[in-house]
Structure to design on (280 residues):
């Protein structure tokens, strides 16, 4: 699940001064100069409201041809340009898991929390951009909120509460072919619960986690067979696995899985003393 990320060092508002100044000799000089004050004000509204689409309105006055100009700043940044430096910095990360879903693997693209199709003026806003895996981007698309839900996705820069573990996995027998359910942590507020539930649903995390869960369950049975021949207990060994995955986030799929095993005495007993499948 979601990982808390430090906010980009670049100021999303003052960046626009540099961007507009660099356009002074171009075909969009007059347009960008004319909108700079409002552009900066709308960016500040984004920051003040944590990017929530319920409180950050679209900019209906942007003509269709100018939407392309905003997006072009993102898709074709000149080398050494103000936004190009920002985009390079955001892409130059050391993450080895997706901060939106917790799946292992380096995310190679940036996502616009408020999509550039609906909010083209946030195409290069640093606070609106963060790494995301291809699977999450495919599920997220241009979605933002519904009539009943103020937002559908957690924001890794503004949702401080995701520093804690926000969901738990409950593993159900039989433990040679276990099943699982995802539960929200009890400490979450109603507002937090609503966005976490929407985030899980809209990114299809439960369906995607199922494949990982199946593979990890086979691996842990193999580990159990090996551990029984050694001097370490099942619980000690699994605690080691868990501790190795608690950094950088308690919401990584690996950490959630091993935390679930440790929280399940029946499964621990099965791994220690039960009849393990012969074909693992």
């Amino acid at each position: 699940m979601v990982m808390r990320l430090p906010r980009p060092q670049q100021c999303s508002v003052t960046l626009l001064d540099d961007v507009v100044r660099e356009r002074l000799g171009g075909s969009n000089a007059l347009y960008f100069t004319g909108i700079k004050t409002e552009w900066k004000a709308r960016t500040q509204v984004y920051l003040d409201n944590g990017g929530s689409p319920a409180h950050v309105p679209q900019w209906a006055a942007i003509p269709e041809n100018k939407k392309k100009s905003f997006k072009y700043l993102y898709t074709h940044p000149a080398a050494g340009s103000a936004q190009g430096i920002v985009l390079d910095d955001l892409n130059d990360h050391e993450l080895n898991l997706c901060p939106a879903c917790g799946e292992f693997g380096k995310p190679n693209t940036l996502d616009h929390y408020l999509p550039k199709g609906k909010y083209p003026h946030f195409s290069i806003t640093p606070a609106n951009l963060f790494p995301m895996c291809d699977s999450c981007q495919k599920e997220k698309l241009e979605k933002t909120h519904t009539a009943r839900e103020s937002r559908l996705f957690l924001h890794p820069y503004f949702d401080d509460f995701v520093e804690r573990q926000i969901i738990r996995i409950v593993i159900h027998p039989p433990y040679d072919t276990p099943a699982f359910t995802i539960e929200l942590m009890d400490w979450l507020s109603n507002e937090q619960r609503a966005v976490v539930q929407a985030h899980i649903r809209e990114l299809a995390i439960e369906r995607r986690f199922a494949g990982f869960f199946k593979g990890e369950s086979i691996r842990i049975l193999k580990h159990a067979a090996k551990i029984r021949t050694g001097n370490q207990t099942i619980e000690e060994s699994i605690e080691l696995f868990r501790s190795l995955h608690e950094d950088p986030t308690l919401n990584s799929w690996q950490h959630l899985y091993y935390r679930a095993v440790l929280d399940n005495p029946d499964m621990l007993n099965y791994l220690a003393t039960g009849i393990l499948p012969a074909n693992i």
